[in-house]
Amino acid sequence: MQGNWPAASNKPAGNEKVLKKSEGISINNFTLLKMIGEGAYAKVYLVRKLDNQKVYALKILKKKKIQELGQQHRVILEKDILANIESHPFIIKLHYSFQNDTKLFFALDFCPGGELFSILSRKHKFDEEQCRFYAAQIVLAIEHLHKHNIIYRDLKPENVILDKEGYIRISDFGLSKDNIEDQTAFSVCGTPEYLAPEILNNSGHGKPVDWWALGNLIYEMLTGLPPFYVENNREELFKKIKYTEITIPSYFSKACKDLLTRLFLKNPYQRLGSNGAEEIKDHPWFTDVDWDKMLQKKYNAPFVPKLKNEIDVSNFDDYFVHQPLNESYQDNQIYHEFSNFSFVNSLKEQNQNKMDLE
């Protein structure tokens, strides 16, 4: 029905369907540069927008796959959260969302530092200072989400990406839940090693699940593995999460041990952070963090990606980067339109243009 999306070119493909002129955006507005990631039903490409020459990460989702998995509501919710959340330095920004007959598209910030997972894999583990730098930003990002009654539910190294300055953004809101004020969510979703006990017990969960996940991430950054890691045995993993206390290495500082002990309380109402992010920000392990300074990105990052140019993808997995640029739009079926999906973040674009001129 439709042809292939051409590789890097200054000419629009000319064969993509623009749903409405008023939307003003389609795949024709972008040129494909490199593949930088792939998930269960999405691929991510580095692209350049033809009119302003800016680069973005373009997340492409197949409607067929989304419908087969019954994930339509999650995709729309992800778009709604990203489109409506107030801008935050440590949360990925959505600039555009649009669709054609067979695909959905999210144009997001391109963060050239790659995934925290990749950096951790190379270094095996971080010292407490580097760990605290990333953890503090995650606390601020989650605090922002919680203030808007959003639980993230998918915190893990793969979903924490680094910008050109070495600061983090949390990305991928496909499992997030909005309108959460108490323990009112019941979906069992997330990365198995990071699931909180109350999710596994199906007893209702809320904002404290994100603080449990923060404890997991801090532990993994300091040791190289999640605290309840079990290889190829999900039943045993879930038993450990629900019933076993974590073993904290002796080389962790006293303050770090205390922080993790309190983040890993099985009872979500007793868990540190259950009464708000200030509980975590006031903990002794974060004593040396100036939260306003962190929010303004005035610290020297422990790792700043070395970049040759704005389209440098050296911090992404070679497997993806070397994939051929042959994203196909051939399909024998036209899938239904996802209503209220298209979005243009014009205010953010104007603000960004203003910043670029200053």
UniProtKB/TrEMBL annotation:
Pfam family, one: Pkinase
Binding site for ATP: 59
Keyword terms, alphabetized: ATP-binding, Kinase, Nucleotide-binding, Phosphoprotein, Serine/threonine-protein kinase, Transferase
Enzyme class of the recorded protein, top EC level: transferase
SUPFAM superfamilies to which the protein is assigned, alphabetical: Protein kinase-like (PK-like)
Enzyme Commission numbers on file: 2.7.11.1
Swiss-Prot/TrEMBL catalytic activity: L-threonyl-[protein] + ATP = O-phospho-L-threonyl-[protein] + ADP + H(+); L-seryl-[protein] + ATP = O-phospho-L-seryl-[protein] + ADP + H(+)
PROSITE patterns for the chain: AGC_KINASE_CTER, PROTEIN_KINASE_ATP, PROTEIN_KINASE_DOM, PROTEIN_KINASE_ST
One annotated GO molecular function: protein serine/threonine kinase activity
InterPro entries linked: AGC-kinase_C, Kinase-like_dom_sf, Prot_kinase_dom, Protein_kinase_ATP_BS, Ser/Thr_kinase_AS, STKc_AGC
Presence of the UniProt keyword Secreted in the record: no
SMART domains cross-referenced by the UniProt entry: S_TK_X, S_TKc
Annotated ranges, domain Protein kinase: 30-286
All residue ranges annotated as the AGC-kinase C-terminal domain in the record: 287-353
Family statement: Belongs to the protein kinase superfamily. AGC Ser/Thr protein kinase family.
Protein name as it appears in the record: non-specific serine/threonine protein kinase
